[in-house]
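Subject: complex prediction, re-run

Hi both,

The earlier run crashed halfway through, so I resubmitted it with identical inputs.
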Amino acid sequence: MGKLFAVVVILIAIASAIPIFLHWYPMAPDISAHGHLIDEQMADTMAEAGFAFLAAQFLLGFFVFRFADRKDPGKIRTFPGGAKVMVAAAVILVGTEVLALGILGQRAWAGQYFTPPAPDAMTIQTQAGQFAFYFRYPGPDGKFGPQHPDKVNEGTQNYFGLDPANDVESRDDVVTAELGVPVNKEIRLLMHSKDVGHSFYVRELRVQQDFVPGLDLMVHFTATKPGKYEIVCTQLCGLGHYNMKAYMDVMSQEDFDAWMKQKISEQ
Amino acid sequence: MSDANSTHAVAHHAPPQGFIRKHVFSLDHKVIGLQYYGLALVAVFIAIFLSWLMRIHLVWPNSPIRGLHLLSAAGAPGDVMTPEYYLSILTMHGTLMVFFVLTNAPFAAFGNYFLPIQIGAEDMAFPRFNMMSFWLTFVAFCVLISAFFIPDGPPISGWTAYAPLSAVGGAAGPGLAYGQTLWGISIAIFCIASLLGSLNFIATTLDLRAKGMTMMRMPLCTWAWFITACIALLAFAVLLPACILLCLDRVAGTSFFIPSGLVINDQVLPHSGGSTLLWQHMFWFFGHPEVYIAILPAAGIVSHILINSLRRPLLSHKVVIGSMMAIAFLSYVVWGHHMFISGMNPFSSLAFSFPTLIITIPATILTLIWLGSIYGSRLRITSASLFALGFISLFVSGGVSGFFLAQPSIDIYLHATYFVVGHFHLVMGVAAIFGVFAGTYFWFPKMTGHMMNETLGKLHFWGTFIGAYCIFMPFHYLGMVGNVRRYSTFVDDYLQPYLGVHKFITIAALTTGAFQLIFLANLIYSRFKGPKAPVNPWECTSLEWTIPSPPPFDNFGGVHPVVYHDPYQYGIEGSTGDYVMQTDPANIVVERDEK
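This time it finished cleanly. Structure:
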């Protein structure tokens, strides 16, 4: 039965690797300026983790095949070099591997989190609440009016709790249910949670960031390909979590201007 | 050891009389170990049943599951599960598995039963604490399960119970009024029980070792239980106050985890000043070590069984212990890798990423030591050794996906996808449970006095091993395409092409779950009809195999065992075959790895 185990382990290892080798389950196509760094990091990691996975499973299979249920019990032999070789292999091979991955991977992380957005980036606010995303554009004055939690009213569609009667900056704010952005324009997205934890995830954009109640955060990104992409919530937020989504519409500058004009007229 | 002493011991440890003292409120560590095992068995079958319901609902969301309304009329009107009830089941599945199965079975159950015997003690250091920790765990289990039977239903916030969803009360959704409070109380009680249990393990290991049983002569599973007890002591000590604070937020109007200005149903919540990230920090400070509370005892049990099957010691006893200690230490400085995108300071992501990657090194050393020890051995294939070998395969498979998730940049894409679900199910769930299965097939003869049926055992192994890969490998692929977890239905347009994969996983889950019934049948059948077990059926060297199966009340019959060797004297000409028992005073030329 040891031989059967060996064969099964090796078959499982090969069967697990085939869908990866043949790209049956590719990552969502990248439409962001920074995403290629993440994708390269993913590919490097896949190569190293894949090698480690196959090597270990094959070794397990070969050793069990060779040494299980030996008819001639033979002498017990020790792997040449013993534990020292194993420790050295783990420290040197895996140590370099993870350090390399760790250091290389920081580039992608730093680009997203340690580099501030360009000064001319376009600022948009998004608010997550059970179970919808809303977006707010500052309007011609370039300023967001303050939010008043007590003014929030779903019935009158005052999702952000704005008070245009008293706050001048609120009067030209544009609120939408869809995130319209111009292509190749850097976006500074301010994130606010109305109630519980949520998350903003656009697969193609390589952006995922939690909304933290009580702590407003910012992410920045540049979308490079026009189209409609799903924004989904990835932080368990209650019964409607699975259905909490919105769309990001990446448009040419002209289309965006026209879209914005229409949204202003709808306010 | 003088005779007077032995008589003294017998006089003080007369077995209790009466059913209640013997089998229910027993002070005997063996009975308590079996009670933990029984509780874990009940919990695991409930959890498997819940996972079936989830898998069926995911691929056939609108089909009725006959009889489901009996479980919850509100959660399954017309036998069709509601999205919120899906989340209730998800929460209960996770909580039952993590706390009542993965903590109880490899650590509390086997540890209680075998740690005292393996070090030559008559019982745990504090038998009354021991009884208390089991019964508190039982109370915690009842409190948790009672959430099924209240109108509100079980909580829907997942086993991680992220605040403020878990803290703000019933306004945030079903199950969050009373169900979540029951959850908090249950886990708080569980924490107290685990703290008592860990203290007991540590005190027993340090104080009650038999003559000649130095620390380095303890079997590897004893080491693993000891190290795990140290982790559990510090981890549950943080989860306990976290649960108490959560309950206070819920019932006493405090705001530890609730910031100001939150609006639910157009009402501003009367809370202010709390921090939602505080919950995540406290939870994961427990949550990450918890992974090792599940996996280290399994690694120890597997090492012990593997050595016995290989008929040779591992390449190095010391290196294995050192690696387990390194993993235990590192497990405390990596909790932030669960929070890369949580909004904590992005610099701390880097600080948490490196130690996480470094954990790979001791984990690889362990794997290589196991693999290298198979080389040149006389591997005997039994149900127990098959599960031990399966554990190595799964430990590797679940471990390599950690390479991805340890890196914050990749986590941006993979966080909260099925990749994570596949990762932790393989390494923490299935691998740890393979350790439990291996331990069961190995120690069942000692615990019950009957041998288990090997044919059924092997059948169970093949079904579970292949089945587990069929379920959890595709999870990784789904994660790669960006399939988000914790959705009750996949309504995203993007995910429609992958529903076929989900169907495959559901069928694999139903089949693999069904194979567990073979295990259950084998347990029950062998308990009553299995052939009588000899004292040492596996030709093993450690102390539990020197005493009758099942062991008498005070383990060693009032005699204090004396230990002469390290526990793994295999592959040498011994008095009994190719091995020398730990209690055998025979002179051995090579004392391996003793110092």
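Residues 35-67 of chain A form the longest helix (33 residues).

- K.
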